[in-house]
Amino acid sequence: MLIDSENLSIPSNIEVLQSHIVVLDNNDQTFLTLIDKSNNKIIDKFGNLGHGPGELIHPGHLLKLDDNKIGVFDLSNMAVFAFDIDSLINSSTYIPNRKVNFKESLFFRVINIDQNKFFGYGISQNSMYALLDYEGNLVNYMFDFPVDNDHKS
Fold it and tell me: Of the candidates 134, 145, 44, 137, which has an alpha carbon nearest to the alpha carbon of residue 94?
């Protein structure tokens, strides 16, 4: 059975969790769609755009944090917001937690490597790539940027 895509505008990112599929749809005021994997039905739309508590300004992409938790990287806030799927389903007033703030650089994308680290790429004074802990603190820069003339290939 196909997923009813009538309620999706421009899906840009998908993460598959244990029992659900989460779709990032940046063309709607409510930017996340939760789908039940067992029947391919849309359960709910959630995640609000804005500047208020738990609202995101520019949701960039999804990160699977665990089997029941999805993260959304907000490009404007330079933060990952964590959404607990069970809490979303059971509460109409659920507000996501701001899980990680990235303080060191302007990242275009972050990827969670494991339960303790993120890999980010973007713009910083020292490097395009950085390894960060789950508090958003720099662990290590990777690959010098800009490359000096002695190291160009």
Answer: 44
Q: What is the pLDDT of residues 52-82, one digit of tens each?
A: 888 899 998 999 988 899 999 998 888 899 9
What is the C-alpha radius of gyration for the chain, rounded to an integer number of angstroms? Answer: 17
Supply the pTM of this predicted model.
Answer: 0.81
Average pLDDT over residues 31-53: 90
- DSSP assignment of the chain: ----GGG-S-EEEEEE-SSEEEEEETTSSEEEEEEETTTTEEEEEEEEBSSSTT-BSSEEEEEEEETTEEEEEETTTTEEEEEEHHHHHH-TT---EEEEE--SSEEEEEEE-SSSEEEEEEE-SSEEEEEEETTS-EEEEEEESSPPGGG--
